[in-house]
DNA sequence: AGCCAACCGTAACGTACGGTACGGTACGGT
DNA sequence: ACCGTACCGTACCGTACGTTACGGTTGGCT
């Protein structure tokens, strides 16, 4: 018999997705004090099923994070007609999207659990929550931004040696202290107008720093 | 009789400081799975004393964070002979100090507990760990950097409207994705040479963005 | 010496929660 | 009609840990 303990990536029934959505909602509401019983109650399923499907609490958390990650696959970038306007628009949209995600309750909650988990982690057994969030957060952002930066350089609109360095600077200009403040519980709103203003500013600054 | 439950800021005996140092060490080693028993054992004190001195687990955590915060008071900035070189040197030193603190094990551990705590917080009762770290982290950095920025503007070396905005940009250029990656458990070393290089780069970029 | 406060060490209590077991129900296949 | 599977709901178990209680020791004060 083959083990059912490991959650293969796409083997989620609708029922299980509902359960994960419930877990996600609970995570947002209650943070890491999410309990197996509470998930079962919220999702109207039995604890036995939770353990059967996800192995243990860690498995449930991991599946939840992956489930959310699978929902936010990035929007592609058009490759044709790439001029300065397209670059600016691309970067601005990118920055705005990123800020929207970052400041969302779900992202904050997920990053909180991941950070918490990364602390009490016995490094070595399997994939940890921190790694997953890292993979679907900053790293994913880098992968998605890279082609834009490369296109910009090819088009003679940007100048940089290492893509990675350029990305990290862009990251800094966009995110600044927003994420850490939110994670630490600073209650400040980031409205839509502020997001778009910040996205424009970050893009503008980035272009100044990396213009040929 | 006056209550002894509230830890007045400077009323720490040597013994209590030792205990807090032990708690700090444990926090760094074991993260949030720090337990009252483990602290008592590590510090060779009784749990009764812990509860007497700090009220409860939260009080101990809070006192520990504050204790660490009280140890990292910033270095002052000289106000005389303020020219471009002084500004550059000041910013670079600032950035390097900040990166050193951020990437230190203690900072990572403290930020982890604070983030964890900020998640499961019943907002309203007293000062929370997140608030304390926020106050002694980003906010303290802003307060310490502000005079430097203002001096720079007075000297005609910088141009900006709002000090806050300028600070946050500097923050972004310095920190970039370092802190979140560390908090999420990304094991990457930030050596002394890298720190100084990054500090120089951030300062340089900042000056480009905010030059008159 | 006698007393008292502070403290250590440890045992004990209460509870929350992860994990398991089990009876009951719905349903599709044979 | 019968059976197996998947599931719900709930009672239960074991343990970790916060918190309290208590007996014993030290050391300063009178």
Description:
The structure is a homodimer of 212-residue chains. With 212 residues, chain A is mainly alpha-helical. In chain A, 69% of the residues lie in helices and 0% in strands. Chains A and B meet through helix 6, helix 7, helix 8, helix 9 and helix 10 of A and helix 6, helix 7, helix 8, helix 9 and helix 10 of B. Chain A binds a DNA duplex (30 and 30 nucleotides) through helix 2 and helix 3.
Specify the number of helices of chain A. Answer: 10
Shape of chain A: elongated
Q: Radius of gyration of chain A, Cα only, in angstroms?
A: 20 Å
What is the averaged pLDDT score of chain A?
A: 88
Helix proportion range of chain A: 55-70%
Show the largest interface. A-B, 42 and 41 residues
Quaternary structure:
homodimer
Helix and strand composition category of chain A:
mainly alpha
Order of helices and strands of chain A: HHHHHHHHHH
Percentage beta strand of chain A = under 5%
Distance from N terminus to C terminus of chain A (CA atoms, Å) equals: 61 Å
Number of strands of chain A: 0
Low-confidence stretches of chain A: 1-9
Q: Sheet with the most strands of chain A? A: none
List the helices and strands and how they pair.
The structure is a homodimer of 212-residue chains.
Chain A: H1 14-30, H2 36-43, H3 47-54, H4 57-71, H5 84-103, H6 105-119, H7 129-154, H8 163-175, H9 178-183, H10 192-210
Chain A binds a DNA duplex (30 and 30 nucleotides) through residues 15, 35-37, 40, 44-49, 51-52, 56-57.
């Amino acid at each position: 018999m083959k083990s059912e303990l490991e959650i293969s990536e796409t083997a989620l029934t609708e029922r299980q997705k509902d359960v994960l959505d419930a877990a996600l909602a609970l995570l947002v509401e209650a943070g890491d004090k999410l309990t197996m019983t509470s998930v079962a109650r919220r999702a109207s399923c039995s604890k036995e099923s939770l353990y059967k499907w996800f192995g243990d609490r860690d498995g449930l958390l991991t599946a939840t994070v992956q489930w959310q990650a699978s929902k936010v696959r990035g929007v592609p970038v058009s490759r044709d007609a790439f001029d300065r306007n397209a670059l600016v628009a691309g970067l601005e949209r990118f920055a705005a999207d990123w800020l929207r995600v970052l400041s969302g309750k779900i992202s904050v909650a997920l990053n909180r659990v991941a950070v918490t988990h990364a602390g009490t982690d016995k490094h070595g057994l399997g994939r940890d929550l921190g790694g997953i969030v890292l993979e679907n957060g900053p790293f994913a952002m880098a992968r998605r931004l890279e082609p834009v930066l490369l296109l910009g350089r090819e088009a003679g609109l940007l100048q940089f040696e290492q893509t990675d360095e350029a990305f990290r600077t862009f990251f800094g200009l966009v995110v600044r202290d927003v994420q850490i403040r939110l994670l630490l519980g600073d209650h400040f709103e980031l409205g839509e107008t502020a997001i778009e203003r910040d996205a424009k500013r970050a893009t503008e600054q980035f272009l100044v720093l990396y213009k040929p």
